[in-house]
Amino acid sequence: MKSFLDEVAARTPAPGGGAVAAMTAASAAALVSMAARFSASEDVATAGDELRARLVQLASDDAKAYRAVLAARGAARQEAMRVATEVPREIASVAAEVAVLAHGLVENGNPRLVGDARVAELVAEAAGRAAGVLVEINTSPR
Per-residue pLDDT tens for 96-113? Predict the structure, then answer.
């Protein structure tokens, strides 16, 4: 975690907001998995693990896509921007799935872990909103 945060804090353009949104949602997915395991909901825990792995990959994909935008020129830049917009769109979608799982645990999970489940829900929602803002910015005319 420290090395990722050090990379974000460095004077480089990527990883940036998309990768942070993805890793934030991945943290929420990890909380879902933990809370589900204490709730004897192994299917939800497994789903959380799968979503977490997907979000970690999306964090890497986002940084790579943004670097490609910076390197591209002319028509290639438009294609690179299209790809770079699809990554945060997917981050938002996967974060929404995490929030749904977390909400289910808030309602039906182990009552001793309702705080963790609620934090997961709120964090996933925030990460999804953040990724959605990046999509809006990337698709707005400049």
Answer: 999 999 999 999 999 999
pLDDT in tens, 62-90: 999 999 999 999 989 888 888 889 999 99
Averaged pLDDT, 49-64: 96
- Alpha carbon distance 43, 39 (integer Å): 11
The CB-based long-range contact list for 56-61 (8 Å cut-off, 24+ gap) reads: 56/22, 56/23, 56/26, 58/18, 58/22, 58/87, 58/90, 58/91, 58/94, 59/4, 59/15, 59/18, 59/19, 59/20, 59/22, 59/23, 59/26, 60/19, 61/87
Q: What is the dihedral of CA 110, 115, 118, 124, to 10 degrees?
A: -110
- 131: closest CA among 100, 101, 90, 78? 90
DSSP 8-state class, residue 112: G
Half-sphere exposure of 89 (CA within 13 A, CB side): 12
Query: pTM to 2 decimals?
Result: 0.92
d(CA 32, CA 9): 27
